[in-house]
Design brief:
Two copies of one chain form a homodimer. By secondary structure, chain A is of the alpha/beta class. The first copy, chain A, is built from nine helices and nine strands. In chain A, 43% of the residues lie in helices and 18% in strands. In chain A, the strands form two sheets. In chain A, strands 5-6-4-3-7-8-9 form a seven-stranded mixed beta sheet. Chain A has a two-stranded antiparallel sheet with strand order 1-2. The radius of gyration of chain A is 20 Å and the shape is globular. Chains A and B meet through helix 1, helix 5, strand 8 and helix 9 of A and helix 1, helix 5, strand 8 and helix 9 of B. The structure holds a DNA duplex (22 and 22 nucleotides).
Chain lengths: 208, 208
DNA sequence: AAGTGTGAACTTTTTCACAGCT
DNA sequence: AGCTGTGAAAAAGTTCACACTT
């Protein structure tokens, strides 16, 4: 099987969200046409995307919302639970912890790290803030799957600490994009300023 | 000229960030090879991307960091200032306002909106929280360029309110993706759970 | 009859490779 | 000599259109 294109991955994640919503609305069955419209793509695209996951529908009928949701979730690794740590004690990291949405989605925040002495030892919503130099200790004590960079100042510090301690998956919420040298490490750069810049480009070119 | 591909836009935004960093480090000149490496792409890609912006380098020499940065900034609409409003008074919106990073980047938060009575009239860092039904009034009083959806619950409410009042550019920070019916409206969906799911897919498939 | 799954056609994007400027 | 800018080639991704199943 060919490798999954990144855009297909992005769309599969969207289909999953839309299916969860349909399930909440007690919809049992959906056609590629309908699911595609709700997901902002065309139905050929959707069917081609789903073909990477498997043969999931019934010809002449459509897709079972429950079954397709489950298969996508499985395919995306979202039936498992993942342990997450956070780099940087900032309002954003407080938000991530207190909001509790990540836990609900199966991403468990196990610890936070900072470098400023006054932040070490703080506990937020049951999550302790450790000194970054204790990362090695924490990584030995628990399986850390994902590191989230939640500061906009020392992103490089946390990035190299995460990489050095064998963390393979990093979500970078700073506004500076990071690129791993080791291709075994996966970084997702998710920047609000980046998103706003796409909109500013669009606004600048309106009507041209 | 052909239309700018979305991925090219994404990369141009990254080049701009990297250039800003080089300028901070007082680097005057950079080759496509070096800038590409710092941006996680190859140099042919970078040169092709820049060709959408114009002829910006000097053959045999490279690019002036200052000049290229300025040209990219201009091209992306980032030499202008944009007025932003926020939908939903949540810890995330508090973070966006108090962090002050957006203002520094030229995105000015003019107002926030909520629907819960107890939140109306609150002032955070100089930003007032209005009832959503006053959006019409605010949109008449000031030019609103961008609406940010900063709640994970009533995203649809704010979305339709924004659209209805003529806001053309929307940054959706909720975990549910939104797609405008009117193609004159541009939505950027930026979801932390989406980013984490990409990482969970990667982790699930490690070693395969 | 309805709607999926998929080769084939088409379109877009990326990479190559080198002419041409400094 | 060195490095950009860009047509041309190659690769990747999207859409079409229809055979096939229920």
């Amino acid at each position: 099987m060919k490798e999954l294109p990144e855009n297909t991955l992005n769309r599969l994640i969207i289909y999953l969200k839309v299916l969860e919503n349909l399930e909440k609305k007690r919809v049992d069955s959906v056609s590629s046409e309908d699911l595609a419209r709700l997901s902002g793509v065309n139905s050929a695209q959707l069917r081609k995307d789903l073909s990477f996951v498997g043969t999931l529908g019934t010809k002449g009928v459509g897709y079972s919302v429950k079954a397709l949701k489950y298969n996508l979730k499985k395919f995306l690794g979202r039936t498992e639970e993942w342990n997450v740590i956070i780099g940087g004690l900032t309002p954003l990291s407080r938000y991530l912890i207190e909001h509790a949405q990540l836990q609900k989605e199966g991403f468990f925040i196990m610890a936070a790290f900072d470098t400023k002495p006054e932040n070490i030892g703080v506990v937020i919503g049951g999550v302790s803030v450790y000194n970054l130099d204790q990362l090695s200790y924490v990584c030995k004590a628990i399986k850390v799957d994902i590191g989230i960079i939640a500061t906009d100042e020392d992103q490089e510090t946390y990035f190299s600490a995460f990489v050095q301690h064998g963390i393979k998956a990093i979500l970078n919420l700073s506004n500076y994009p990071l690129f791993p040298e080791d291709e075994k490490i996966k970084v997702e750069n998710l920047s609000i300023v980046h998103g706003l810049t796409k909109l500013s480009y669009y606004l600048k070119n309106l009507g041209s």
